[in-house]
Amino acid sequence: MNREQRLYSVIYDYFFTRICLGFYQEGDTLPSIGEAREMFGVSTRTIRKAYHMLEEEGYLSISRGRNAVVIRGAPGGQCREVCVAYFAARRDSILDLSWMAKKILPEIFLRGFLMMDGEGLDGLALSVEKMRIQNLQTQLQCFCRILAPLGNPLLTSFFWEISVFSRMTYLRGLFADEAENERDSENLRCRFMEMIDARRAEDSERLRTLICRFFGNCDVHVRAHFGELASRYAPASEQVPFTWRVYKGRPQQGFFIAMKLIRKIYAEDYRLGEFLPSAADLAEEYGVSVITIRRTLVLLGRLGLTETINGRGTRVIPQEENVARQGLQAPAVRKNLKIFLQTVQMLALTGEAVMLASFPHFKPDKVRRAAETFRNETAYDIVPFTCMELVADSDASPCLRELYGQLSDLFGWGVILRFLARGSSVSGERRELIEEMRAGLAARDAGRFARGFSGLMFHVLEGAGRRLRERGVL
């Protein structure tokens, strides 16, 4: 999902839920295009797309030169039905997301705050003044300002996906009276201003405490909300899982499939000299056209991972350095190498918290396999994959498994960097960090293992960033 799609999706949700919940009734007008553009800080095109989606679904009438008019409101009782149906079907996933956010977001937001300069803090303070408990967009604007200094679109995408999936958790403001809403809004603004003041004072420990307290309080609120819901209504028979849509749309499908195939080549599911399944079989496996598969195979060829032999198929080959360097010039490859770097940054920022939370849930057979990998220096390239698999295949939080399963696949785009570093030996720091993880596994010391993984990811981030800058990718 690209940035524009995320924006008009949120704006659509914003007005759709208010129409269904009776906030806008039949005959009411929505804000003008100009007013909505100012309200959300987006382009006219984005607002028009959101309004047209509502028009196509029969909720709005749009006429040239006039504000959009609501022509189908929420019938009696639908307000509560919409809330109950949405929440009940996503209860487990939203509770899990809330728990996960409490674990991983504090470190990310702390890093974003610490990277903000005076001008950035001033801009954030202005946005905080506009925050309202019943207006999700004003809150998202503040969150995105904090994330912006990290320069990581992949991370921002993940945050947007969480917000869209959990979109109705903010609707309590619609059921409260104006005075209660204003009290809650003022409390929210005060908490953010305390964080800004701590950052201005360069008091990082207080800032960390305030951020952790904020996300902890958010989790308490979400659980209280669902506790009240559970006391009144029966749970849904089927739960909707959270899915992070990293790649969406036809142009992106080839990248998604390439990512999966690279991961399998890395893991030696497809060995040197072995032929991949036919284009028709791959198309059936991934649910895409044969043309999309052929484009994907061209991309793998540019990376020097495969070669296509007329009449026989596509096989895995030893990656040649000159081919890998040529592949580095392909726009699609350069784009996904940037995604790889964003992936490593996410792993570095979330790694310690995720490994601490997941460690007790690792499966014994996976732990034994990981220990063997850590002892084998020739397998050091796949150590990050092995660690992510421990999480993705564990009995831990489903949302953590989804996050690290996706990041594991995205990490595969770093395959080309193996040849940019050819000839260099394993650094002493990398060896020490992997030994730290091995020792942590052996001693069942979650903290030691988690610190080793986080340190390794920061080490990879520094080295990969340096190589990509040297070759003009960044």
Question: Could you say what the CATH topology of the largest domain is called?
Answer: Four Helix Bundle (Hemerythrin (Met), subunit A)
SSE ordering: HHHEEHHHHHHHHHHEEHHHHHHHH
- In terms of quaternary structure, what is this? single chain
Q: Count the strands?
A: 4
Provide the gyration radius in Å: 24 Å
CATH class of the largest domain: Mainly Alpha
Mind describing the biggest β-sheet?
2 strands, antiparallel
Percentage of residues in helical conformation: 55-70%
What's the overall average pLDDT, rounded?
83
Shape: globular
CATH architecture descriptor text of the largest domain: Up-down Bundle
Supply the number of structural domains: 4
Assess the beta-strand content as a share of residues. Answer: under 5%
Unreliably modeled segments: none
Distance between the termini: 22 Å
Helix/strand/pairing class, anyone?
mainly alpha
Keywords: DNA-binding, Transcription, Transcription regulation
Pfam family, one: GntR
InterPro entries: Bact_HTH_transcr_reg, Tscrpt_reg_HTH_GntR, WH-like_DNA-bd_sf, WH_DNA-bd_sf
Organism: Anaerotruncus massiliensis
Structure in words:
With 474 residues, the protein is mainly alpha-helical. It has 4 domains: 1-74, Winged helix-like DNA-binding domain superfamily/Winged helix DNA-binding domain (Arc Repressor Mutant, subunit A); 79-237, Up-down Bundle (Four Helix Bundle (Hemerythrin (Met), subunit A)), CATH 1.20.120; 250-318, Arc Repressor Mutant, subunit A, CATH 1.10.10; 331-470, Four Helix Bundle (Hemerythrin (Met), subunit A), CATH 1.20.120. Helix content is 68%, strand content 3%. It has helices at residues 3-20, 33-40, 44-56, 78-115, 118-129, 136-147, 153-165, 172-175, 178-200, 204-232, 250-266, 279-286, 290-302, 321-327, 331-358, 364-375, 383-392, 398-411, 417-420, 428-443, 446-470; strands at residues 60-61, 69-70, 306-309, 313-316. A two-stranded antiparallel sheet has the order 1-2. Strands 3-4 form a two-stranded antiparallel sheet. Strand 1 (60-61) and strand 2 (69-70) form a beta hairpin. Helix 12 (279-286) packs across helix 13 (290-302). The radius of gyration is 24 Å and the shape is globular. It starts with a helix and ends with a helix. The model has no long low-confidence stretch (mean pLDDT 83).
